[in-house]
Specification:
- By secondary structure, this protein is mainly α.
- The chain folds into two domains: 63 residues, no CATH class; 358 residues, Growth Hormone, Chain: A.
- It is built from 18 helices and no strands.
- Helix 16 runs antiparallel to helix 17.
Length: 449
């Protein structure tokens, strides 16, 4: 019987050289025990002879109940962790842009720029956003959204530091131009990931993600105000901020897989949005232009028009942002019930009414209420435009997002020029007109559903 056992070992070594076993002390067993213990090997021997298959791989791939449960548990844990990737990315983007916006006065003071020169510096950011479309399209085509997000995010953090340490106006303009390119590319990548997940799950969630971005912007602006009160230079502030944000960026990147970011966009030459996509781009441009203008000029309006104190003036942006955040957190549920087009149309009309109310208010406190209403009304414009464009594919999203994002950077200098020529009251009324125009265009957009 021992000879039969040894013959079994030799048989396995002959047919499966990769699976040689270390000789062990042989004990006496009966023939039927040997066959019971080795019937699987014998069956696979014949399988290899007849079908030339590889039994070792097949055995390694066999799923036992314990292994199946472990894999299922690990997959469930990974799926739960992946749910945090996009919220982290949107919040991170908000922190970066909020930090930049909160330190604009300090950077302008450091390089000694006038109001008109500062408008030109901010205009460079809008130009960079427009130029980012061919960059983001090419990167998405060759790398996919996941790697585009990582590289654009790291570049954005580097550009933020460059803005903080730029010693002259020309270098600051170049850095802000780079900010527009990298920020818009990063924005396209994370929104492409979000819209792809919306299509895969059939659930609307882009409004909530943009709400988290708004919360990140508030956190970034608050941190910037704290750093300014502590007399910490913008360059030092941004260097301190870059390291933890880079860690968070890589953490979110590692959680995203190929399925999470969708397919790579097709390679094609540069072209601006056309047809129905042009309507979406126009809505996004006007909406982000109004949003950016309120972010930069609402406090100045309260201070110049009503003589508000330094403590009261910033509350205009706070009221606007808090109401926008609250609306975006419930926007997905409202979209499921009412649809995107009615919400964008009626919301824009509400936003216009709030801005006109702020302009005509007799005191700063009623004007604060007007800005809060404006934030409530304009909150859903940007996320719903991105969701509609993303449903047409990553290439469409890249074009619409670049066109839309340029509005948030081009709006403030335009409003600044109007304020310098005709006063802040007319400038804010102009923003109200933009909101009314959004309602008109949105009511005729077939892609907002």
């Amino acid at each position: 019987m021992c000879n039969a056992s040894m013959e079994g070992y030799k048989l396995k070594e002959f047919f499966f050289p990769q699976a040689k076993q270390t000789p062990v002390k042989v004990r006496r067993i009966h023939l039927h025990q040997f066959l019971d213990a080795n019937y699987l090997w014998l069956a696979l021997c014949f399988q290899r002879l007849l079908f030339n298959s590889h039994p070792i791989k097949e055995i390694s791939q066999m799923q036992t109940p314990r292994r199946t449960n472990a894999i299922a548990s690990r997959s469930q844990s990974m799926a739960q962790a992946q749910q945090y990737a996009l919220p982290v990315l949107f919040s991170l983007f908000g922190v970066i842009m909020g930090s930049w916006a909160g330190r604009i006065p300090s950077m302008a003071e450091r390089v000694h720029v006038s109001h008109s020169a500062l408008s030109m510096v901010l205009l460079c950011g809008g130009l960079g956003a427009v130029l980012s479309y061919p960059v983001s399209s090419r990167m998405m085509a060759s790398l996919g959204a996941r790697k585009t997000m990582l590289f654009a995010g790291l570049a954005l953090l580097g550009v933020l530091i460059a803005i903080g340490v730029a010693p002259t106006v020309p270098l600051l303009m170049l850095a802000v131009l780079s900010l527009g390119i990298t920020a818009s590319t990063f924005d396209v990548a994370i929104n492409s990931s979000a819209t792809e997940r919306e299509k895969r799950t059939g659930k609307s969630e882009l409004s909530k993600l943009h709400g988290l971005g708004c919360a990140g912007g508030l956190a970034g602006a608050t941190l910037g105000s704290l750093m300014a009160s502590l007399h910490i230079a913008p360059g030092t502030h941004f260097m301190m901020l870059a390291a933890p944000l880079a860690v968070a960026l890589y953490f979110a990147y590692s959680l995203l897989d190929a399925d999470e970011v969708g397919q790579k966009v097709e390679k094609k030459s540069f072209s601006l949005p056309r047809g129905p996509l042009l309507f979406l781009g126009a809505i996004g441009f006007l909406g982000s232009m109004a949003e950016g203008s309120i972010a930069d000029w609402s406090g100045v309006f309260l201070k110049e028009h009503f003589g508000a104190s330094d403590g009261l003036a910033p509350l205009a942006l706070s009221a606007f942002s808090v109401m926008m955040l609250m609306a975006r957190l419930v926007g997905d549920k409202l979209k499921t019930r009412y649809g995107a087009r009615p919400l964008v149309t009626s919301g824009s009309m509400l936003g216009a009414a709030g801005l006109f109310f702020a302009v005509l208010s007799p005191n700063a406190y009623l004007a604060l209420a007007g800005f809060a209403v404006a934030g409530l009304g304009l909150a859903l414009v940007f996320p719903f435009v991105f969701s509609a464009a993303g449903a047409q594919g990553p290439a469409a999203l890249a074009g619409v997002a670049s066109m839309a994002y340029s509005g948030s950077l081009m709006g403030p200098p335009v409003i600044g020029a109007i304020a310098q020529g005709m006063g802040m009251q007319v400038a804010i009324a102009y923003v109200g007109g933009l909101a009314a125009l959004i309602a008109f265009v949105a009511s005729r957009s077939r892609m907002l559903k």
